[in-house]
Amino acid sequence: MKKAIGIDIGGTKIAAAIITESGELLKRTEVKSDPSDREKMFGRVVEAVEQVLENSAISIDDIKGIGVGVPGKVDRAKGIAVFQNNLPWAQFPIMDRLRERFGTERISIDNDVYMAAFAEWKAVQGKSDETFVYVTISTGISCSIIHKGSFFRGAGFAGELGLIPVLSKGTNKPLEKVAAGPAIQQFAARELQAEQIVTKDVFAGYTNGLPEYHSIINEVTDYLAQGLYSISSLLDPHKIVFGGSVIVNNPFLLKLIKKKLNIYQLPEQQHILEHMSISTLKQNNGVVGAGLRVFESN
């Protein structure tokens, strides 16, 4: 059974896992990030890889390769982490550094959302003649598009759904600024005049039937529906899968979003409502996708 290491790198944590060619996760570990310094951050990546190998009792010699998901813009051909807003890795040669440290020639690098999207596409058995979209709603909002079996990348920055403006209280604001996790927390703090509130409290208040929280969630889901309608109109996808902590931990949001999206759509666009789902891989889609991409490379 062929095995690869998948690494999902974020500003707060780094996950590493042993992944089989069929997408099975054999062992997973997680360490805290250290974005205070580029070398310290790389040291944490090395620590995550060493831990998952030690915990699984698998040698690096038994690993076919390493797949790495990195936030922001990456140069896949050169293996460079080009730009991130939450890591100290501007122009960081992560591919060469991992090869130097572990002696592994086969290394695949990509944006972390693209890695997660690949795992989700495989999980729903995405067809090679369809358009598939993965949307993540977490501390940020982004998406990745797989069209006819290949990523749609544009000039290299495609999928930034969070930057699309939506109408909020009479002005246009980026979707991420009004509907991502931190934005929901800030919105609730203003509306309820509660400085100590956190995002999960907002969802708890909604599920407990408190009216003041219902108005907040109603507004947030309208923003999300506006952003998703741009995807519906531009791409008319066959499937959309949602990931990220905001929606994975609060699956009731999908029903609300569908109801709002239905208002915007023409009848010819409404087929997507039956093909919108929440990730079954949850927090593992990044490492699974990164591992699987190793087996896709030549």
From TrEMBL:
Matches recorded under InterPro entries: ATPase_NBD, ROK
Highest rank taxon of the organism: Bacteria
Family: Belongs to the ROK (NagC/XylR) family.
Protein name: ROK family protein
